[in-house]
Design goal:
It is a single chain. The chain is mostly beta strands. Helices cover 9% and strands 45% of the residues. β21 and β22 form a beta hairpin. The longest helix has 31 residues. The relative contact order is 0.11.
């Protein structure tokens, strides 16, 4: 009897020990092993999410601004823009952007534009299209004026002209620029002073110009709807008469020192003497000077150390007005040669 009780007790203890050992092994396995993360998706290839909250935030003057949100912009490579004009059933790929916005410009005021956006991830997968939004970029405001207007009066090859260039207006619906000319700074930009227009950002005025007379210019941008913007600040320049070569002009120079002499123009100006190795090109040396003298002989001493004996050189004088770096007028070509030293 005692033996049976002992045997039964022993079996019960062994059974509990086996259960405890199994639990311990399972606990150690969970603690010691890293969590298994499957890497095989079974061949599934999911496209990126669709852009959300697509909306048009600006639509006027031939421009439409489109904006949207995305949960993680770094996840996508770019966004494709789809567009249709006057018919939403004809959506086609139009452009792309890396930003969360897109600006479409140079549009027709009376057309209705439809847009939708998709996302493209790094593997080239494309999301479904977003909801469609639409707007008309009606003509509302007059255009901004152009800026950084440059002027260069020119007396080149016996032809008088004034060359204007500028940076375009910030508006994309500009059709052309009106150019106005006056003889005083406060002149009005009206039809009387209108000398022409330009669809580009340059204009050359050759209309009834005179030497030694100051001309003032202003510009106004005109959009495709006919709205005219404010005028620019006036710029001015004067066409200078050409200086005249006096000496040397065909002479042979003996020695290293001599004077360039020429007759200056009819207003204070800056001058540049250019020495050339041939009649057309090959600048050898340049001399810059300024003078307040009017139609007076100007003399510039020159050290001809770099000039070769026996070679014929050519020289001319250019004039510069104001702070302009472009030549205003220039003389005819003179020549000279150096004798032995």
């Amino acid at each position: 009897m005692i033996l049976k009780m002992y045997s039964s007790r022993r079996k019960e203890m062994c059974s509990k020990f086996k259960i405890s050992l199994t639990v311990l092994i399972l606990m150690l396995t969970v603690i010691s092993c890293e969590r298994y993360i499957p890497t095989d998706t079974g061949g599934m290839d999911f496209p990126p999410a669709v852009p959300e909250n697509v909306q048009i935030t600006r639509a006027r003057d031939g421009e439409i601004t489109l904006e949207w949100q995305y949960f993680d912009p770094a996840y996508v490579k770019k966004f494709n823009i789809y567009r249709a004009v006057n018919d939403s059933t004809k959506m086609k790929y139009y452009s792309f952007t890396n930003d969360l916005y897109f600006i479409d410009d140079s549009l027709n005021y009376d057309s209705l534009y439809f847009y939708s956006v998709s996302a493209i991830d790094g593997k080239g997968r494309e999301s479904a299209l977003s909801k469609i939004v639409s707007a008309k970029p009606v003509n509302y405001y007059k255009p901004f004026p152009p800026y950084l207007v440059n002027i260069n009066a020119r007396n080149w090859n016996d032809t008088l002209s004034v060359f204007l260039s500028w940076q375009p207006s910030y508006d994309s619906d500009v059709d052309h620029y009106n150019v106005y000319r006056g003889i005083e700074e406060s002149f009005k930009t009206d039809k009387i002073h209108l000398v022409g227009n330009s669809k580009s950002t340059v204009f050359v005025d050759r209309n009834n110009l005179k030497i030694l007379k100051y001309y003032y210019y202003k510009l106004r941008a005109v959009d495709k709807g006919g709205l005219i913007g404010n005028a620019t600040y006036p710029v001015k320049d004067v066409i200078l008469d050409a200086p005249k070569i006096i000496f040397p002009n065909g002479q042979k120079i003996n020695g290293l020192f001599f004077d360039f002499k020429f007759l200056g123009c009819g207003l204070p100006a800056r001058y540049k003497i250019v020495i050339q190795s041939s009649e057309q090109f090959g600048s050898v040396d340049e001399i810059n000077l300024s003078s307040f003298k009017i139609h007076d002989t100007l003399s510039v001493n020159y050290y001809a150390y770099y000039l070769m004996p026996g070679k014929t050189y050519y020289w001319r004088v250019g004039t510069y007005s104001g702070n302009n770096d472009e030549v205003n007028s220039y003389s005819k070509l003179g020549s000279f040669s150096m004798t032995g030293r």
